[in-house]
Amino acid sequence: MGSAPQRSPEPFDTRSSMADTPKSRPANESGDDSSPNGSRPLEELRHLILAPEQEALERLNQRIENPESRTEDVSNVVAEAIQRRRTQGGSDALSEALAPTIETALRESVRKDPGTLADALFPVMGPAIRRSILETLRSFLDSFNQIMDQSLSWEGLKWRVEALRTGRPFTEVVLLHSLVFRVEQVFLIHKKTGLPIAHAVAPAVAMQDPSLVSGMLSAIQSFVHDSFHTGQGQGVNRMNVGDLDVWVENGPYAILAAVIRGVGPRALQERMAETLENIHAEYAARLDRFDGDTAPFANIHKELARCLEAKFKEESKPRGYGYAWAAGAVLLALVGGWLGWRWWQYHRWSELAATLGNQPGLTITSFGRERGRFVIHGLRDPLAADPEKFVEDAHLNRTQAEFHWGAYYALDDALVQQRAITELAPPAGVSLSVKDGVLHVEGRPPAKWLNDLRSRGLLIPGIRTLDLGRFTPEQIAFDEAKGKIQVAVVRFPVASAALSSAERANLRNLLPQLKEVLNASVAPHGSVSIEVVGHSDTTGAEETNQNLSQRRADRVAWELIQLGIPDASLHAKGVATGEPVRPEDSEENRQYNRSATLRVITGAAAAP
Amino acid sequence: MIQKKICMLGSFAVGKTSLVRRFVESIYSESYQTTVGVKIDKKVVSVDGKEITLVLWDLYGEDDFQKMRWSHFQGASGYLLVADGTRRGTLEKAVALEQKAREEVGPIPFVLVINKSDLVDEWDLDPEMEGRHEAMNWTVLRSSAKTGEGVEEAFLQLTRKMLG
User: Fold this and answer.
1) Interface membership of A239 toward B (CB under 8 Å)
2) What are A221-253's pLDDT values in tens digits?
């Protein structure tokens, strides 16, 4: 088309073209006519006969030589011409011819103003992108569901074990068990050269070099063809190796080979045949001319990808997204369980805090959770129970919590009492008790310890009052005097009531104590009297002893009267061997029973 | 992507397979050759800034080339004609193979490679033999699959010829 204007207009030259037509055989202008003189009339004759045609030809010639009119002519038919060419079925060549121009035009348009093309594409791009995203999401959901299905089921566990045992990747084991079939790779191979024209591969399939596989496949085809002298268009249709099948579909220019794992359905074979037919219908000319350049076949990939079918076993189908939901439920249960456990932990620790708060000497000021640990702030008396013991008894995990104790003195009676005992160290026979902040003393405290108590007692935290009413100086003096009197033993010779001078002196020495006791007017004691008790040893007759002991008591009472003790305050009685001073197990102890002793009688009993 | 099928032609034990092995990384074992009659390898070369994928069909050659599977030769864009410099007969066979190839697929580009140039002292060729082939407008190269000399060059020359 483009070379036409450069051509010389020779073919349309009226003279030369007319020269070939036998119908009109006019002499040409070169003048090789036999009669040069007759040229004029001939010219006229020709003019007369051919004038209208000549003019028409002249006009035609001008029209063709004039680019403007020619452009107009072509513009009238160009659209119809393209259309007709397409209906004639030669659209391949047309597209091929137009493609570079259109590509250049598009590039030029983008270079000048990208906006124009963007605006034109805008309504197309939105839906295209949406669809692509949707497809991606759907395949993701499907595979997620499948993985959940396989991971959570009993079979899934079995397959994991199998994968571990055989050292094969888990996905491969799953495929082996759950797959009915899957088309892993599809090759479109140029029949004559054995070169791959296009190749499609399913996701996550380990693929070999398409050139080599294609070459080998076509080599095998021709090998079989040669070896068994099969007819044209016949060849290997199926190859089977273990789990893999290779299906081959033969076409005039290309063969379609599919690598299938599992058992492919008959429908797949039909689809392959259909695909190969479609490819031949559209690309026959280019396939015939194939010289190793795959660029013109870029679009075939889509066609091949449609053959990458897969089908999984039915059982997982009806479950739909059940396992995704189940996984969600499990997740929810886990979260719920975790929250519940957290709450239970909180509950138990707060209970412990309450228990601790109820202990004497322990006060909880705050309880809370910080950075995942329980934190208990409080005050603790040094004598309070050990909080760690309570944690142990409650079987709580000690590492979950931390304690912050401040020291303080608690005012609980029990603790104050314990503190007082620790501080005052009461001697044997003396006991301390605290009630409502009052310290009570029981027993017979020595005067020195009591003095110590008086000076320090109120310094002990929690003790507000000392109850020492019974421990007045008078009472103490009375008690001391009484004690001295009652331990004295006035001894007599054998079978005698005669008082030696030494014993008399001893009695005289007791005089201050006797006076102290008798003069005491301490409220609770009331009246006080002295009882003189005479004793005898166990030798001799009972009657004699009774008599003797009475005489000894009388003798001492008499002596006391002599010393100035009013006889109204005295009472003498003999008890013979009835109340021995010491057990008579030696001569010395027997000596002590030949005696008289004194007893201080107080209260009602003291009445004579 | 541009791909070209090329074949290795030559008598038995001239070193076709060794030349290929020098040139490519292979995934197939050589036992294919005896079973199917061919072993296929691939090499991507760059010529004048163009990437060309060469698919090499290493045909199993018996001394009696009639037994070679010429069907494997169909569709080749070019071939390497290999002879052994230490065996005069292989060069004569090469001439015959070239003729047979022309009968099978018509005139296509080829390069004559005289292999085992590392053993040039043991060569059994008349000096004019190489020249004679060059005079026939053949491209003749010396190569050594052992040292690698001329191997790459042979394939590149063939590729250039195929691209015209």
Assistant:
1) no
2) 877 777 777 766 566 788 887 778 899 988 888
